[in-house]
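Lab notebook, bench 4. We co-purified these components, and the gel suggests they stay together. Before we commit to crystallization screens, I want a quick structural picture of the whole thing.
Request: model the full complex, all chains together.
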Amino acid sequence: MAVFSVAWYAISLTTPNKLLLPPPADVARALQDMATDGELFSNAAISLGRLLLAVSAAAVLAIPLGLAIGRSRLWEDLFELPVEMLRPISGIAWIPLALFIFGIGTMLPLFIMFYTAFFPMVLGTAAGARNIDRRLVAAARTMGITGTVLMRQVILPAALPAILVSVRLAVAASWTAVVAAELIGAPSGLGYALDYYRSMVMTSSVMGYVAVIGVLGFLTDKALRLLGGRLTPWAAERPR
Amino acid sequence: MMRAPYMVIRVATRLTVPVLLLVLWQALAMASGSARMPRPSAVLAAGLALLASGDLLAGLATSLGRVFAGFFLASAVAVPLGIVMGSVRPVERNLDPLVESFRPVAAIAILPLVILWLGTGSIAAVVIVAYAAFFPVLINTIAGVKRIEPNLMRAATTMGVPAITRMRVVLLPAALPSILVGMRIGLGIAWTAIIAAELAVGAKAGSSGGIGQMMFVFYAYSVELNGIVVCMIAVGLVALCLDWVLRAGLTWAVPWSRG
Amino acid sequence: MSEAKIRLEGIGKTFELPGVSLLVVDDLSLEIRAGEFLAIVGPSGCGKTTVLNMLAGLERPSTGTMMLDGRAIEGPGAERGVMFQDYALFPWQTVQGNIGFGLRFGPAGRDLSRSEQDARVARVIELVGLRGSETKYPHQLSGGMRQRVALARLVANEPDILLMDEPLAALDAQTRMILQDELLRIWGQDRPAAARRTVVFITHAIDEAVFLADRVVVLSSHPGRLKRIVDIDLPRPRDDSTRKSAAFAELGQSIWELIRDEAYRATMR
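Here is the predicted assembly.
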């Protein structure tokens, strides 16, 4: 890490054009300026807010649908094909069409993120619900437990570790999509700021925003992992 | 006797939602009152036209070429690096913080920097793709090397197999399934990244083709939305094919796996 | 059965874990004779596997010396072959590939041409009864078949000393007895003692140790200490009639009495 910073500094010294590769100190100063100015926080808050809204909306639809697909032949037959048809079309490929439908604004990143988060959660939940230990369900049935109680007390907890992993995947994918969507078609947010400073050739600010996006992505994943550990204390901790 | 009607019912069930979606799409397009809104029949016609003119295939070829170049570049660095990081503790301890701090930075986020440094041509696109594919391959290679049964290495050691040979005949095959999984994920991410890069670059001067840029041109200049949908479908089909090819490669290269 | 092949003197092993140091083997002295079949038994936690790993050179003793043919054991060597409890078969190699692995990539096959290597692999496959499964992968085999592959791999390398860590532990009772008989045949119980290889065989099953071994080393647990060495004077060749004999049962009973209390305690741990 230290070697990396020194190398960056050294290369920045030998680069004739400061606009191409500003030294670390310049980036720190740019970050500080943008932080005191408040724009850093407002852009971060906007992007994180969109992330939360889009992923929550996707989860509310995707997790019950995934459970149904995983536990019922009928639901699987109904929804497997459309899911498999739409999933390979990445959220990012929807941007031009969504631009036309929604125009530049908040709806565009929200839609793209919702779409991006939806599929990992449906598939992860369905796989989790499908792969739970049959003996657990059998054991509950022999105790006379069926229907929604079975779903809530046995299937949901048994599938929960898989669901939480899929939520983490969805959030990570969605965070990538927010940058792309804002970069192309939103008047605010981290992605927008990134492209704005690029067009102004303010490289230190661009690099500052890149770092912020990385750190926020990392912290979000960390937080979800902690939350996952809290929700499933019985599940073994897996590396990475 | 009983099976035939049952199968018919199942096939019909499986087609219900896709057909409903198509009908809904057509209805929404008609209700929007805009002649530009894409609808299934027009998309089909546009798709045939784009195929006949060769534009669609040319765009796909450009994008795929960039994806493969970047993907091979990434794999050529990530696989050896991952093997070393997974088996030599000090190397891992020194490089891990660096990897972990770049990993959450999506390829799309560094796009503006890459444009600043390398412009909007093919080199920039290849760099973006290489960056996108690099981390999944690296992380999975490291994990594969670390997850190897310790007794396999010990067994080879007790047979007197030299260390360098052990790397080749034990470590590499043991990690291969995981490496190939990393490549599959990496290629998928690379394909998404190239579309994003070409889309974002499509708005800038001097951009150089590819399916993503084609979509942007359809959006921004000719407002040919049917063409956009054709491109979306093509993007999805290519994603499916890439995944299928790597999946087949995995079963071919790992005949010992349980599948 | 005369000179010592391997000599252990005052062997101790301590594992340094974060915060604690764990004494696993304490002051173990032992002579292993050339050509003998030596079994080591003891309740769980007696450090059996650790002793074997030290003999293999995979772990180093914290104290004491280990000599092989008068030279200190410094690390793994191809003259000491190991059969692991989990078999450690290479999943990407077929039955043939696994059995020929040491010949192809290790020193065992250095003086052999490729066709000589193949011939030896074929002979060993015949010996352990794996004909017809040559091109199968380990995951396509049953537990007993995998165990045969591991045994064949060990035998194919023709090591001087065969170190076996609970090789039959994972098998059902019938398969186990069949493979015990075969193990003795491969070891060469029909041959004169001078033509046999040296075997160190770890097991937790007393009857297995008595049936197979010339001598049984009984260890106590926590830490592993030498409790007694029991001579097994059952006549060879041994077979099913040996299992039915009164002497067999008596020997087993006497060893069980040595470790019974500790074994009970181990189940409560």
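The two ends of chain A are 20 Å apart (CA to CA). Worth comparing against the SEC data before the next meeting. Chains A and C do not touch (no CB pair under 8 Å).
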